[in-house]
Amino acid sequence: MAEYYVRADGTAASKETATSGSDASTAMSVATHNAQTYSPGDVIILCSDGGDFTATIIPPSSGSAGLPITYRPDTGQTVTVDATGKTRAFYVNAKSDIKIQGPGLIVKNSNTANIGTAGITGRLIVDGVESQGGVSSIYILAGANVEVKNNIIRQGTQYGLALVISVATTVTDGIVSGNTFIGTPGMTHTAGIYLRGSGLTFSNNSITNWSLSGATSQTINCVSLIGMAASGNTISNATGHGYSFDANSNGNTITGDSLSTGTGTGIKNIGGDLTLENVTITGFAASGLSATGTGVNTLTECALHTNTGVGASFGSGASAVIVGGNYHDNTTYGIAQTTGSTGDLSISGAEIYNNGGTGVTSVTSGDVTVNQSDMHGNCKTTAGANLLVGGSGTATITNSNFYEAAIANTDANASDGVKIGGTVVAIITRCSSYRNKDDGYQGNEDSTSTYTNCTAYENGSTNQASGDGWTGHENGVIHLRYCAAWGNWKSGVAFTNATSGSVYNCTFYNNYNTSNDPGGESPWYKNQGIGIDATGAWDIRNNIAANNGSEIVVTTDAMTGRADNTLTIDYNIYHDSRGGDGFYFNGTSLGWAGWLAALSASSTVVGKDAHSANSDPLFVDPSTGNFRLQSTSPAIDAGVTP
Questions:
Q1: How far apart are the first and last CA of the chain?
Q2: 196 three-class SS
């Protein structure tokens, strides 16, 4: 292992006489250097005494594993290799185990790449170098093992290109770490950072002020990654996408990165599986994340907020698994699966709030799972719901809360806690939907929803046409089991159109507002515990309806043309505590005796409330939502197994 000196004005005839950088006669020129042969572990010392280098430095020999041939500045000097008019400042051609070492080494102004390679198979290390200008700063094209670390890479000026790190064949052992990529606001670059390699890691880099333009996927992104891991990077003030994964990418992981303030999408994935862990994406003009490939996108404890557009969007065949994290204050949706999607969506332990439109919208043929998540305060500017599931898949929703949709929206846009549509089959268990501007839960179109141990309370407001705990429209099928609705603006449940279903073992209390004047046919949609305005088959048994404006309503529309034996009402406890006519059947307000007589005379009604009672159910403390029964309650053992 030996040290050899090179100066721009060097005149030493060979490496043997290149023993010092203090004089031109004891240092080689670049041309002489390029013609020598070196051994593993040799060090080539570049000296600034002879001025800037203007010739391309081409390592003529390879090092070996653990013994690279190293190029570095002389101690205490700043050395510049100015490749103006040249294709490269450094060109590593079919040589391996080369190390280009700073600090104090500047490469700049090439018309191809400041540091470029071809045909290398061993390790290449670029460490602590500053690259300025040039078409590409560092362009590595080989199956090499690569370390690009601790460099400062500034914008290019020629053609407006800033940087391309390209590994066009698979790299099995590579590191891109600790680099600082610096653009200039207003400067347009036509490429970002392009990396491909199954064993390549991109970590702890900083990318700022990157402005991009171009037509292909790898040239409109700050960072394009294929088949690799990324962690701890920061991307800010970007124009274009922050990260992009093309159709060939799969198995990428990004951990602990922060992406902010870009004109495109924070992360765009049109490829395979992608994992994000503790990633923050904020301030992008399109969306935080857009995935339209065929893989599974796993987001763990991520924060996607304040983006213009969607926090996280999944389309085509992309699936998503979201664990923890928060998605808030995005202009449209917090999380969205677009119409025509076929992927699955799973959300667990996440908080989705204060988005301009619907918190989570999914219109997919895949399956949707939501567990232990909170969705609240969404629909700030556009009507929707905290959660909307359409499409044709299944939905399993458990242990989650949906509240205050459109609470900050002063217009009359309707916004619900949960809305189920399409042909979705939904199982909803142990959920709460409350204080939403419109309804707690809706089942629409041709969907089927089964609710068990769910609550809906204090939904609706003065500027809404609704405010039901549960409601159904079109051909929806809705089943309620052991649910409770109280304090809603219009009703506990209200079912319309051709909906059908069943309500068993539920409680409806104090769904009443003095601002709602019952008048005429209107009790069916105002101040009712149970409201049937639907022509489908319904089974209403084992319920308690108390202290509502009307305890139960069956409208004229619900009875017109109804087939015999398609409406079952029995084994219920009512408490018409407000006095007057607390029951409504086929156009007439009735007292308890009149209600029983009307049901008895109807051929379409089964059960006819023959085993029901109008009596105080004796709740423990309904004012606090405690609807347990006192020991003397008439509702105890008063039901039947449906």
A1: 90
A2: strand
Closest CA to 458 of 445, 467, 446, 450: 467
Alpha-carbon gap, residue 117 to 492, rounded angstroms: 72
502 alpha-carbon distance from chain centroid: 36
Classify domain 308-489 by CATH number.
Answer: 2.160.20.10
- Cα–Cα distances (Å) from 58 to 92, 117, 207, in that order, read 6, 10, 29
In the numeric block, which tokens belong to residue 493? 């449940």
Q: What is the DSSP letter of 211?
A: B
Spatial separation of the C-alpha atoms in residues 21 and 2, rounded to whole Å? 14
Domain boundaries, the chain: 308-489, 498-642
Distance between CA 14 and CA 17 in Å, rounded?
A: 6
List, for residues 300-343, the tens digit of each pLDDT value.
999 999 999 999 999 999 999 999 999 999 999 999 998 889 99
> What pLDDT, in 10s, does the model give residues 581-590?
899 999 898 9
Torsion of CA 512, 516, 521, 527, to 10 degrees: -10
The first and second tokens of residue 331, run together, are 């202009």
Distances in Å between the Cα of 411 and the Cα atoms of 381, 426, 461 are 9, 30, 11
DSSP SS3 for 334: coil
Question: Quick check: pTM over 0.90?
Answer: no
> Is the peptide bond between 103 and the residue preceding it cis, with omega within 30 degrees of 0?
yes
CA dist 545 and 552 (Å) reads 7
Among 599, 601, 595, which residue's Cα sits nearest to residue 576? 595
- β strands within 342-467, DSSP E: 345-348, 351-353, 360-364, 368-371, 374-376, 384-391, 394-398, 401-403, 415-420, 425-429, 432-434, 441-443, 448-452, 455-457
